[in-house]
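Flavin prenyltransferase UbiX
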Amino acid sequence: MIIIAITGASGTIYGVRILEALSEKKETALLVTNTASKILEYETGLKLDEIKELADHYFDVHDLEAPISSGSFNFEAMIIAPCSMKTLAAIAQGYADNIITRAADVSLKEKRKLILVPRETPLRNVHLENMLKVSREGGIILPAMPGFYHKPENIDDMVNFIAGKALDILGVENRLFRRWTGHDTR
């Protein structure tokens, strides 16, 4: 099972696209903060109930009794996209006050893949320090910084680049973006 969490930062489409790509390939669990639900609707026009249907499981953000809150529950990996600076800070400090930060804590302590897609700019020193803390514990920081060598033609192309990179880290085959094959000499 792969856990996809969407937190209260701009860029909720990243989490949705990753969930869409995984929905037919892997068992998934979806977690969405209250703020993320509002941002999702504002940015994409999607309602939470619409994306819940893409996941195999949905857990309320305040449900600390959900199975994924225990290290004894076996899940493969967790992706938080987008990852708000509040969520990043909680993870970096070991402050597990909701199911997202608790599952992230479990990911780190059990040495499972944890991918954070931070979405903030510019970054303060504390943001960078929190990213470094999580990275030193084994978390993977995948900033929402799309490449442009694939010559994106629209926003979907840029979103797909980030979603595809996250799937690459998970070892999930995808064709969401055109890969670099070397300098085009045409």
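thats it. The chain has one domain: 2-170. The first helix runs from residue 12 to 22. bye
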